[in-house]
Specification:
The chain is built from eleven helices and four strands; from the N terminus they run H-H-E-H-E-H-E-H-E-H-H-H-H-H-H. With about 300 residues, it is mainly alpha-helical. Strands 2-3-1-4 form a four-stranded antiparallel β-sheet. This is Cell division protein FtsX. Keywords: Cell cycle, Cell division, Cell membrane, Membrane, Transmembrane, Transmembrane helix. Its main location: membrane. Forms a membrane-associated complex with FtsE.
């Protein structure tokens, strides 16, 4: 009988404050979707770092005959065979460098350039003699790039030392910035949702103050009187959590598998799988259920006199 009464009171409360309940559901759904998106973005960045940092190289570009006039470091002319031999020997002696050290010839560099930028209008203006020979160095620890840069950046025959990790750092910095923005929006929406929940509970309690007063007079406990209000907030939060889960699943499908199909267009990126999304859904649902219930409990302690 008591359970039936509590459920009937929940239904009454939801019908009386339908507009505000809808606002709570939407705000909770958006805030939790942003929360889940932020978690997935952080996992995506971590996955990409693990995937790409293991593959990036340090490139030591050597001077060619065309660099003598334009590049001060190559004023002495193109790199000599002896200089190339010494550079390779020194690289192989370094503990931070994985063996073997790869050497890319001018023809190989031109071939790789055509494979990557062959469709570009500028590709036809590039000739093999404009390309540079280079050593491709894989580090045991990508963080030790400066060890190689310091050792070879000023040597004769070396035009420049480039760390491919720096390019990725810019990308990861952008993604981390987007993640921070998502977290900020999530916190903002969460605050709005909590304010709506508290306000909804206050309005619901005020509209039923006569019923709660009678229940108090006949000996009902404070928890029994508060339970319908708490359950109303929890139910609205649960609906919002379910909508957030749907948004996350739809976003994962639309962005990566269908619609934009980033998995096919950007096949060099190791996108997170469905399991990463599915493992976040229970947390989203739990927060969606507990957050409004706790907020309602504190609101009732202050505004509902029982």
């Amino acid at each position: 009988m008591r359970a039936q009464f509590v459920l009937s009171e929940i239904g009454v409360g939801l019908r009386r404050n339908l507009t505000m309940t809808f606002a709570v559901v939407v705000s909770v759904a958006l805030s939790l979707a942003l929360f889940g998106g932020a978690l997935l973005m952080r996992e995506q960045v971590s996955s990409m770092k693990t995937y790409w940092y293991d593959k990036v190289n340090v490139s030591i570009f050597l001077c060619n005959k065309n660099d003598a006039k334009d590049v001060p470091k190559c004023a002495k002319g193109a790199v000599t065979a002896q200089q190339k031999k010494e550079i390779k020997a020194d690289l192989e002696k370094m503990d931070a460098v994985e063996k073997p050290v790869l050497f890319e010839t001018v023809d190989e560099a031109y071939k790789h350039y055509q494979e990557q930028f062959g469709d570009s209008p500028m590709a036809g203006n590039i000739t093999p003699d404009q390309m540079q020979e280079s050593f491709r160095v894989k580090l045991k620890d990508p963080q030790k790039y400066k060890v190689v840069a310091t050792a070879f950046a000023g040597r004769d025959g070396v035009q420049s030392v480039q760390d491919q990790r720096s390019i990725l750092d810019n990308l990861f910095g952008l993604m981390n910035g987007m993640n921070v923005a998502a977290v900020f929006l999530m916190v903002l929406m969460l605050v709005i949702a909590l304010m709506l929940i508290v306000n909804t509970v206050r309005v619901s309690a005020f509209s039923r103050r006569r019923e709660t007063g009678i229940m108090r007079l006949v000996g009902a406990s404070g928890f029994y009187i508060q339970m319908p209000f708490i359950m109303e907030a929890a139910f609205a939060g649960l609906i919002g959590g379910l909508l957030a889960c749907v948004i996350l699943l739809a976003a994962r499908y639309f962005l990566i598998d269908g619609g934009l199909a980033l998995q096919e267009k950007l096949n060099l990126i190791d996108f997170i799988g469905w399991e990463a999304v599915l493992t976040k859904l229970p947390l989203v649902l739990a927060i969606g259920l507990l957050m409004p219930a706790v907020a309602a409990l504190f609101a009732l302690r202050k505004y509902l006199k029982v």
